[in-house]
Amino acid sequence: MTFTKAFKDVFSEYLTQYGFKWCYKVRRFVKVQNQELIFFIGYRGAPASTRSNKCFEVYVGIFSVYFSRFGDWENEYSRESLMKMAFAVSEEPLMDFTNPYMYVMGFEYDKNNNDNMTEVLRKAAAATVKWVIPEFDKVTDLKAYVVFTKKHLLIPLGFCDKFLQDSLTLILTDNHDDFLDNIDEEPESEKEFVRQCIKENYTDPRDRVFNDPILLKEALKEAEHSKKINLEALKNLKIKV
Question: N or C terminus of the chain with fewer C-beta within 10 Å?
Answer without folding.
Answer: N
